[in-house]
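Archive record
______________

***
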Amino acid sequence: MEDIAALIAAGGGAACLLGVSSGAVLALEAAARGLPVTKLAVYEPPFIVDGTRPPVADDFIPDLHRLLAAGKRDEVVKRFMRMVGMPGVFILLARLFPNWRKLVAVAHTVSYDFTILQGTQAGKPLPRDRWSALRAPILVLDGGKSPLWMRHGCRALADLLPQSSYRTLPDQTHMVKPKVLAPALIEFLEPV
């Protein structure tokens, strides 16, 4: 939150925010905590709000901390990849590529992502009061080819927020293409 506040201050004192995946939840939290956010767009916060995907286990975050304390950073990356649905064969192959070392170097941030997501991946409705202080217009986006569980979470968020609109970007997945995302953002951010 302090980093976002500093960026907003350096940029003139108010900002429009875009958050993608767990960054969407971070942006929601920043706006809900009173940072000067004039508009907010979120793309596919990974909420699990029903039975279309198994919930994240209660011990997932403590296990990440245990693995990090034991220096098992590669295991943290593997668990994250399994959690997001990467097939086992791809996880095995990923270890052979040079990018693997970069992923292992930032393994400690996986627990940050799941901490900000706490209470939103239990297969239950989103907490009604968590973002009740939001007053800025919010655009909730998802991809037409994204998993059903993720699209249900986005729809649930849009239904929960008073100043929100919901839009699906056709043919997009969680790895949204900037050339598809940009026009939707430009339309949303244009002054009325």
User: Anything to note?
Assistant: The chain has two domains: 2-52+123-189, 60-116. The longest strand covers residues 37-43. The mean pLDDT is 95. The radius of gyration is 17 Å.
